[in-house]
Write a structure and sequence with these properties.
Elements (H helix, E strand, L loop, with lengths): L1 H10 L6 E12 L6 H15 L2 H8 L6 E8 L6 E9 L2 H11 L12 H13 L3 E12 L10 H10 L3 E7 L13 H8 L8 E4 L2 H17 L11
């Protein structure tokens, strides 16, 4: 544990600005619809994805061969909190340290959905991190497009996009079920209401077996600056 703490201290936000190609905020749903088992399930999915050789290869192919990442859980307005602070990932060792730090801490956010507040938190974290990235991305994940408190999504989204930050989405259709649930087209709602910016896209996680693969695919697309097909955000 001491070695992990020392490593994260070395990898986390430096005293002076550091160049990376990508600054990436992972905004993970911790609202009332997510129980503790699902919190742990989501974190494991991201931990597996960030250490995947294909994700590490994508990082090596960036201009500076490193990216900056933070993992933040969101729920009610004002409860957003970083589970893992800004960390520079430049290879397997730093990715493993990030993954280990991700799977340990207690739940960080509680309450009903406040998507607008979550997006503005992501913007603030990017603007205050002391890192200079060519691309700045908020990666928003959740199982609903509802906004029950805090600033309106449209207002927050416009502010984030005006700052030159792209918003991508991971639409979680269900975690512990088979096939698509009935109801609204969550991907379309994300495309219409949440995502935006240069190359913005939505990736779908349709169930437990698909979640880690969806996260991995999303990370590779974000790190490489690619856009998936056929469901591409229209704005």
């Amino acid at each position: 544990m001491l070695r992990l703490t020392l490593l994260l201290c070395c990898l986390s936000l430096p005293a002076r600005a550091q160049d990376v190609e990508l600054e990436l905020v992972l905004l993970a749903d911790a609202s009332g619809s997510i129980d503790q088992a699902e919190i742990e399930f989501q974190r494991r999915g991201y931990a597996e994805a960030i250490t995947d050789p294909r994700v590490l290869a994508a990082i090596r192919n960036t201009a500076y061969r490193k990216i900056a990442v933070t993992y933040v859980e969101w729920a009610a307005a004002g409860t957003e909190d970083a589970v893992v602070p800004w960390t520079v990932i430049d290879g397997a060792e730093s990715a493993e340290a990030f993954a280990e730090a991700l799977t340990g801490p207690p739940r960080r956010a509680f309450g009903r959905n406040a998507i607008g507040s979550a997006l503005l938190t992501g913007k603030r974290l990017i603007e205050e991190n002391g890192i200079d990235g060519w691309r700045k991305v908020i990666d928003f994940s959740g199982d609903s497009a509802n906004n029950w408190n805090g600033p309106p999504v449209a207002t927050a989204r416009a502010e984030v996009l005006a700052a030159g930050i792209t918003i991508n989405g991971l639409a979680i259709l269900c975690r512990f079920c088979n096939g698509r649930p009935s109801g609204a087209d969550l991907e379309q709602l994300y495309e219409d209401r949440i995502v935006g910016g240069v190359g913005a896209f939505v990736v779908t996680a349709a169930g437990a077996k698909d979640f880690a693969d969806a996260v991995r695919r999303k990370l590779i697309l974000e790190i490489s600056g690619s856009v998936p097909a056929p469901r591409v955000a229209s704005r």
